[in-house]
Structures are given as structure tokens and as C-alpha cells.
């Protein structure tokens, strides 16, 4: 039979196809903590943990008072003691304020020295980076100077931390991202840093960062403008809603406007491997009365204020998780309590259903393979596997717990790929499959 499609044609067309979405094997932090550059010290992450533990001990000394299960409470305490901050941004923008050039010069140098010190002492959180001022005509020179001073001082004392990220705020066009990528390329070359070692994070907080003036979605071209460096996109809820003429009283993280931005981010960047990051809860869980000799009424008011802040933040975290945003912002040490409590509770409450469904998916797909059928719902299987990978990465469960509940070996789990797990498994016996209407199949042990 004469061939119509030559090998050369097939190969040339295959090169134009996009790859499979990357599995969630690489760790995504559950949060990014932002703090002013003037305040950053080598032990900042550990200080955040100590302050969060203090708030927990004072206002929720047990699981019942925090409103979580005993296992979740124990995990929150352990997390705050061992790794309270997963990702930190040293902020030279909104969290830093307007300062003189002399002050910012000094803080760029001192913050870099503190990062180097933390790296040497093993105190850096898993993720670290900085946020510069916008690359606008008014602030461009200031931003570039801060960038140069910080990198130069840091690399005089220590290597660039792995996964170092630079957050670019107030983006209004791809040119700003292209300029930043060019600056980073020059810095890395001049300072002997491997090319591409510095990631770029996009702040989506202006309408022009979402859509161009012609109405096209701007996100893909912003991501591409990073030249392979773009690693994350962050929602800037309050700037965005303000630019949409929403007054301050209604600028909320759960605004329908923010939901629209989130879903546009998801639709534009799905399958690219670019992390999506939710914004910040702007009500802090802090007491309203200070001092050591408080009345019972004052102590009760403090507890009510802290819990109100925790409840709001926890609700925002839960809502983000339910809608596919697994990372968000934290601005205050006490917010870490609500963050981890909400994250761990989310995974705990969905564990049984995810376990049952993943086992059933694997059983059904193995049966399809046995009968030479085609299993075409691998995306759903990968989605269920991703639940366990995220739970594992954030500390909600141990590797052994995930393996037991998911019905997978640790080796299978570490592949991060549903299709790879199927490929490595022997075909299931027909008796192990009960069909789509049979309540799911169980894998024999």
C-alpha cells in the first residue's frame, strides 16, 4: 500500500504540536509572604513562625478552639515549628513605601547581605525573591538600581539561591517584561550566574495586564515576553479593583471582578507550568487591645478580633483551593495559622473521595488496557493524582499516608504521572473491575 504520510512529514508536523501539561511533581508553595525590605533579616522566617505559634497558643490553644481536627492542629503546630514560611518576597514596592534614594540603596544592600547570611546559616525558606518597583517612566531608574545593588551584594557573599524569583508589579505591557528579562540576562552574565536562573513573576493588577487595548488577552504574550523565565502570575486584587473604579469598601478578594480575573488567568495559562497565585486578605488577625493587664472584656475582644481575621483569611484560602488556586499571599505572621489550618483541612476533608476515585480510575484504565480498549480520560486521572501530589508537597500528609490512601507505591507516586503509573503496572485481573456504575474498583493488594 502506498504511503500518503511520509516519516519526514509526520516528524515535521509533530514538532509543531504542544507538549503535555507538566505534572504537579515540582513543589508549589502554598503561599508567598510579603514583607518590607527594611524589615528583612536572616531570621525573618523563623521569627514569623515564633510569632504565629504565640498567636496560636494565646487565641487557639487546642484543636477545638481553632475549629479543626486534632491531626490538622498537630500538623499546623509542626509546620510553624519546622518550616513556617514556604516562600518569601522582600518587598521594595507597596510593602516598603516611598523612601529616599539613599534609604532604598541602603536597604537593597542590607537585604541582600541578610539573604546571604540566611543562606549560610540554613535559614532561608524554600522560596525567596524580591519585588521591585514598577518599570514605569517615573520609577524605572530606581527599580534598575535596586536590582543591580541587590544582586551585586548578594553574589559577593553567596550563590544565588535556587529558584530565586523577581516579582514585577503594575504591568501594563509586554515591553516591561521584555526589559526586565533583558536586565536579568545582563546581570547573570556579568555576575557569573547560570543563564535563566532568575525567574520572573507577573503581577496581574491592571486591566492592561489582562487585555490589550485591542481586546486580546494579554497574558500569553506577557508570559512569552519573559523569554522562558516566567514562573508565576499573581493576582493583585486591590490595585485591579481600584483601577476598575470600585471604591475601597468593596475592594474584596472574593469580589466577582477578582473571580473573573482568576478564571481568565487559568484559561490563558493552563498547561504552561506557570504557577497561579491568589491575592492577599487585607484584614489582619491582630488584637485590638495591647498591654499585660487587660480586663476580661478586653481579652474577649482581642480573641474575637483575631478569630474574625482568621475566619476571613481561612475562608479566602478555602475558596481559592476550591477554584484551583493553590497558592496565595500572607502578610502577617498570625495569618500563617489560618493558611495552614485551611490548607490541611481542605486536603483532609477531600482525602476519602479522592482516594476512592483514583483507585477506581486506575482499575478501570487497567481493564481497558486488558481488553485492548482506549482509555481517554487520563486528564481526570492526572487531576486526582495531582491532589495527592499537592497534599504531599505542602505537608498535609506524609509520603506513606499518601501511598496508603491512594493505593500507590511510593515509587509510582514519585513519577508524578498517571499515564506512567498505568504503563508500569501489570494489567489488572477482570475480577478487579466493577464498571463505571459499580461504585468504583479496588486494586488488589
What does this structure look like?
- The chain folds into two domains: 31-346, Alpha-Beta Barrel (TIM Barrel); 351-432, no CATH class.
- Helices cover 52% and strands 9% of the residues.
- It contains 17 helices and eight strands.
- It has helices at residues 7-14, 44-59, 63-66, 70-82, 101-121, 140-157, 174-191, 207-210, 219-225, 237-243, 256-269, 296-322, 335-370, 378-394, 399-406, 410-415, 418-424, and strands at 31-36, 87-91, 127-131, 165-168, 199-204, 230-235, 275-277, 328-330.
- Residues 369-376 and 428-445 have low confidence and may be disordered.
Q: What profile does the largest beta sheet have?
A: 8 strands, parallel
Helices, by number, come to 17
- Mean pLDDT score: 89
By CATH, the architecture of the largest domain is named Alpha-Beta Barrel
Strand content: 5-15%
- The separation of the N and C termini measures 48 Å
And the CATH topology of the largest domain? Answer: TIM Barrel
The multimeric state of the shown protein is single chain
What class would the helix/strand composition place it in? alpha/beta
Determine Rg (CA atoms, Å): 24 Å
Proportion of residues in helical segments = 40-55%
CATH top level of the largest domain is: Alpha Beta
* Corresponding CATH superfamily of the largest domain: Malate synthase, domain 3
Number of domains: 2
Query: SSE string, helix = H, strand = E?
Result: HEHHHEHEHEHEHHEHHEHEHHHHH
How does the overall form come out from the CA principal axes?
A: globular
Strand order of the largest sheet: 7-6-5-4-3-2-1-8
- The tally of beta strands, per DSSP, is 8
In terms of per-residue confidence, which ranges show pLDDT below 50 for 5 or more consecutive residues?
369-376, 428-445
Amino acid at each position: 500500500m502506498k504511503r500518503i504520510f511520509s516519516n519526514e512529514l509526520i516528524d515535521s508536523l509533530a514538532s509543531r504540536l504542544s507538549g503535555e501539561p507538566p505534572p504537579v511533581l515540582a513543589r508549589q508553595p502554598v503561599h508567598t509572604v510579603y514583607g518590607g525590605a527594611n524589615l528583612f533579616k536572616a531570621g525573618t522566617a523563623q521569627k514569623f513562625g515564633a510569632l504565629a505559634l504565640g498567636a496560636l497558643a494565646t487565641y487557639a490553644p487546642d484543636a477545638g478552639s481553632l475549629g479543626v481536627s486534632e491531626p490538622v492542629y498537630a500538623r499546623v503546630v509542626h509546620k510553624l515549628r519546622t518550616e513556617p514560611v514556604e516562600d518569601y518576597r522582600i518587598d521594595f514596592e507597596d510593602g516598603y513605601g516611598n523612601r529616599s534614594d539613599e534609604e532604598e540603596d541602603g536597604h537593597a544592600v542590607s537585604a541582600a547581605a541578610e539573604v546571604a547570611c540566611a543562606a549560610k546559616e540554613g535559614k532561608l525558606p524554600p522560596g525567596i525573591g524580591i519585588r521591585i518597583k514598577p518599570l514605569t517612566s517615573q520609577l524605572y531608574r530606581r527599580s534598575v538600581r535596586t536590582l543591580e545593588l541587590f544582586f551585586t551584594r548578594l553574589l559577593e557573599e553567596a550563590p544565588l539561591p535556587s529558584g530565586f524569583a523577581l516579582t514585577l508589579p503594575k504591568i501594563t505591557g509586554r515591553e516591561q517584561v521584555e526589559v526586565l528579562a533583558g536586565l536579568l540576562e545582563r546581570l547573570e552574565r556579568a555576575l557569573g550566574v547560570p543563564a535563566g536562573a532568575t525567574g520572573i513573576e507577573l503581577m496581574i493588577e491592571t486591566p492592561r495586564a489582562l487585555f490589550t487595548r485591542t481586546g486580546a488577552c494579554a497574558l500569553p504574550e506577557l508570559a512569552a515576553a519573559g523569554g522562558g523565565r516566567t514562573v508565576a502570575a499573581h493576582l493583585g486584587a486591590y490595585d485591579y479593583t481600584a483601577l476598575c473604579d470600585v471604591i475601597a469598601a468593596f475592594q474584596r478578594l472574593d469580589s466577582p471582578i477578582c473571580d473573573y480575573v482568576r478564571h481568565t488567568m487559568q484559561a490563558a495559562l493552563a498547561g504552561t507550568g506557570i504557577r497561579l497565585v491568589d491575592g492577599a486578605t487585607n484584614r489582619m488577625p491582630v488584637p485590638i487591645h495591647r498591654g499585660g493587664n487587660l480586663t476580661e472584656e478586653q481579652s474577649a475582644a482581642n480573641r474575637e478580633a483575631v478569630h474574625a481575621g482568621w475566619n476571613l483569611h481561612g475562608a479566602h484560602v478555602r475558596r481559592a483551593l476550591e477554584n484551583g488556586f493553590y497558592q496565595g499571599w500572607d502578610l502577617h505572621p498570625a495569618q500563617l495559622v489560618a493558611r495552614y489550618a485551611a490548607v490541611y483541612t481542605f486536603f483532609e476533608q477531600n482525602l476519602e473521595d479522592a482516594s476512592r476515585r483514583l483507585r477506581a480510575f486506575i482499575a478501570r484504565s487497567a481493564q481497558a488496557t486488558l481488553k485492548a480498549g482506549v482509555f481517554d480520560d487520563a486528564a481526570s486521572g492526572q487531576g486526582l493524582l495531582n491532589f495527592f501530589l499537592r497534599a504531599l508537597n505542602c505537608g498535609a500528609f506524609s509520603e506513606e499516608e499518601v501511598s496508603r490512601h491512594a493505593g500507590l507505591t511510593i515509587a509510582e507516586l514519585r513519577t508524578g504521572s498517571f499515564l506512567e503509573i498505568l504503563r508500569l503496572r501489570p494489567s489488572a485481573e477482570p475480577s478487579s473491575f466493577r464498571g463505571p456504575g459499580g461504585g468504583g474498583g479496588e486494586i488488589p493488594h
